[in-house]
């Protein structure tokens, strides 16, 4: 029985491991965090239907019966010996496999890098991840603990940004902002909620309905513009200067909470892992498939495969489909390898 090493226990890694186990392979999943689930584990509800993130995660991992999921371990080195991959772990153990699946996911953009927005400087500036934690805890409030009367969301933080060097769209931020803005209005119907966006990229079937409902049912105000400045007032509210690019005017307003929609970036150890395995990366720092049209799960290194957001921003449904496709690519690779081994033996 061939053994597969899966690096990353997020939604992609767990989905792929489950599919590989069903195909009869032995699988070990390696996760550097102390729990599986990746970024989804820190989310409360998911767009577009508001399904609990924990429900999706539990389903992804519920069918794993024989797979070993090792948490709190990092891959220190990987090398190929006699046609097999040997991974040395931070725990001092080693794992040997016939193929490696990289499902290392993404990191949220570090909002501290956008100093002009005041994250980590002003008390009432938060990220989308911070807000999800509040939703999970059952209370959304600023530093004072009081219910907010006015909340502003800023899209494209760390995405589509020449200054930062991330020109790409993170794909899920617009839908996440609409979801979160609607949830704030559900909690506090009398609150004013603003979304400041560059372009609204509501591309999937149910996304336009989310946008429509945010406006008509909840009264969220959408302003096409860019946040120019954020400062902290004497009352600890955040004072915003926003350029309304449609009206050609400058808006000045104070908000109780400013929420930054941090985008997706490649994890900091992507280049290190890629270098050990001989896998290419793209100019954005994500892992590069060998063929973006016909082989998105196949890397430049034989026997190394890719799944999920390690190759770039994706939604959860796209990630799940990508993980299952990676499983099929591994099945095909190992099948061809068995045929070649048998032919040599004859």
End-to-end distance: 21 Å
Number of helices: 7
Helix/strand structural class: alpha/beta
> What would you say the CATH architecture of the largest domain is?
3-Layer(bba) Sandwich
> How many extended strands?
19
How big a fraction of the residues is strand?
25-35%
Major pleated sheet: 7 strands, mixed
Largest sheet, spatial ordering of strands: 11-17-12-13-14-15-16
Overall number of structural domains: 2
The CATH topology of the largest domain is FAD/NAD(P)-binding domain
Average pLDDT over all residues? 94
What sequence of helices (H) and strands (E) makes up the elements? EHEEEHEEEEEEEHEHEHEEEEEHEH
The radius of gyration over CA amounts to 22 Å
Assign the CATH class of the largest domain: Alpha Beta
Name of the CATH superfamily of the largest domain: FAD/NAD(P)-binding domain
Task: Outline the structure in words.
The protein has 346 residues and is α/β, with parallel strands linked by helices. It has 2 domains: 3-106 and 266-345, FAD/NAD(P)-binding domain (3-Layer(bba) Sandwich); 111-263, 3-Layer(bba) Sandwich (FAD/NAD(P)-binding domain). It is built from 7 helices and 19 strands. It has helices at residues 11-22, 53-61, 128-137, 173-187, 207-216, 270-277, 316-345, and strands spanning 3-7, 26-31, 45-46, 51-52, 68-71, 75-81, 84-89, 94-97, 99-102, 107-108, 125-127, 150-157, 192-197, 221-232, 238-244, 249-255, 257-262, 264-265, 304-306. The strands form 5 sheets. It has a 7-stranded mixed β-sheet with strand order 11-17-12-13-14-15-16. Strands 5-2-1-9-19 form a 5-stranded parallel β-sheet, with helices on one face. Helix 1 (11-22) packs across helix 7 (316-345). The mean pLDDT is 94.
């Amino acid at each position: 029985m061939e053994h597969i090493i899966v690096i990353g226990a997020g939604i992609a890694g767990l989905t792929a491991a489950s599919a590989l186990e069903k195909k009869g392979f032995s699988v070990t999943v390696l996760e550097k965090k102390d729990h599986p689930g990746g970024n989804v584990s820190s989310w409360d509800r998911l767009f577009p239907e508001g399904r609990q993130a924990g429900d999706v995660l539990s389903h992804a991992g519920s069918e794993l019966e024989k797979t070993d999921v090792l948490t709190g371990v990092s891959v220190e080195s990987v090398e190929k010996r006699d046609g097999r991959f040997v991974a040395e772990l931070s725990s001092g153990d080693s794992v040997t496999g016939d193929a490696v699946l990289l499902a290392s996911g993404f990191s949220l953009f570090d909002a501290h890098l956008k100093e002009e927005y005041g994250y980590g400087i002003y008390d009432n500036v938060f990220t989308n991840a911070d807000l999800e934690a509040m939703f999970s805890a059952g209370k959304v409030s600023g530093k004072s603990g009081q219910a907010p009367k006015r909340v502003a969301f800023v899209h494209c933080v760390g995405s589509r940004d020449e200054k930062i060097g991330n020109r790409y769209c993170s794909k899920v931020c617009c839908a996440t902002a609409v979801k979160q803005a609607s949830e704030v209005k559900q909690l506090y119907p009398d609150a004013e909620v603003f979304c400041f966006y560059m372009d609204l990229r509501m591309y999937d079937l149910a996304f336009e309905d989310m946008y429509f409902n945010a406006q008509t049912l909840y009264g969220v105000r959408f302003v096409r513009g860019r946040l120019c400045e954020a400062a902290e007032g004497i009352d600890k509210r955040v004072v915003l200067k926003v350029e309304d690019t449609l009206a050609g005017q400058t808006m000045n307003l104070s908000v109780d909470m400013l929420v930054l929609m941090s985008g997706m970036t490649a994890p900091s150890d992507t280049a290190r892992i890629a270098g050990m395995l001989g896998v290419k990366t793209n100019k954005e720092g994500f892992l590069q498939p060998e063929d973006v049209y016909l082989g998105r799960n196949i890397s430049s290194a034989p026997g190394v495969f890719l799944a999920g957001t390690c190759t770039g921003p994706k939604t959860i449904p796209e990630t799940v489909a990508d993980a299952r496709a990676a499983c099929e690519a591994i099945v095909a690779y190992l099948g061809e390898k068995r045929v070649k081994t048998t032919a040599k033996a004859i």
